[in-house]
Amino acid sequence: MFRLIKYLLILAVLGAIGLFGYSYLLEPEEAPVTETIEIDAG
Length: 42
Hints:
The chain crosses the membrane at residues 7-25. By secondary structure, the chain is mostly helical.
């Protein structure tokens, strides 16, 4: 029983870190695109 809870807890933590890392990796890609659009428009 405790092994199952420990396994699910580890999966939840890794999943949260994975989602955070994934969104963090997506942000730097989108940010320069909007900046270049602003520079080109200006």
